[in-house]
Structures are given as C-alpha cells and as structure tokens.
Amino acid sequence: MSELDSFRHMKDEFFRTDHHSPLTADQKRAFSGLNYFPENTDLDLLLDVERFEGEEQVQIQTTTGDVQTYTRFGKINFQIDGEEIILTIFANENGYFLPFADSLAGVETYGAGRYIEPERGANGSFHVNFNLAYNPYCAYNELYSCPITPAENRIKAPIRAGEKVFDDEH
Question: Does some domain include residue 162?
Fold first, then answer.
C-alpha cells in the first residue's frame, strides 16, 4: 500500500468511526469511503513562492455567512497541461492555507472548492501535493462553517487529484 493509499484509508476510518467526523450518524451507517482521483505524481509539486509585499489581511467569507481573517502570503506558479496556473497561498495562526476551485468544481469536485495545507520547506519553497486536496467539512455537513475559495484561486484548468465530490449514498 502506498503512503497516499494508507493516508486515505486512515481518513476513511476517521470519517466512519471518530466522534469528530463531520458525518452525521445516518451518513456514517452508509459510509464506505470517500471518492478520490487516482494518485497523480505530476501534481505533487515543490514550488517557489513569490511573496507579497506587506502583510495584507483579507476577510474570506464562509459558507455560513461569517468571515475569517487571513494574510495573503504569496503566490505560486506552475503548469497543468501547458496552461499556466497562479494560486495564492494564505496564512493565519493555524499555518498555510491554499483553497482552490478548478473547472471540475460542482461537477466532479465540491462546488465551493477544495483545500490544501502546503508545507513550507527550509529553503522557503512549498510542497504542494494536490493528491492531498480535500473537501472542507461543510461538503459533508452544512452545520460546519468553511471559507469559500476567493476569486483569485478559481482556475479554469482541471485538477484531477485529491478528493472528489462527496456522495452520501456511497
């Protein structure tokens, strides 16, 4: 079993059994695992970040109408199928945050977007593994409040990696 398969198995077990799972009791009874894209090693990236000048604070709207405050940290740049992609990494007291919505949002993936927590390396570059892209808890349960992907991180290219849309019949 690959490291990614092992991670996904543990996540499915957490969703199925843990009291901190976002699933309702009814969802847990029918739950047989999350839907994932196959691992795509081309979307496991080590990227330089172009830092923004200053510490611009932004308010990001949530699914429940609240706002959460983040700092616009910097932008990353890479290509998917020859198309240039630019995404903003945000930061707060919990670490780095990369919300994104691609062309699959609302079809194969959660409509409000998916999240990644990129890891900053010692040299300042970031490990951004789209295979770890996940749905926010509000994709499973409307009682959760989740940041909505800002316009600057909505892209036209498809990112076929990570979690797919949740099917509570699954």
Answer: no
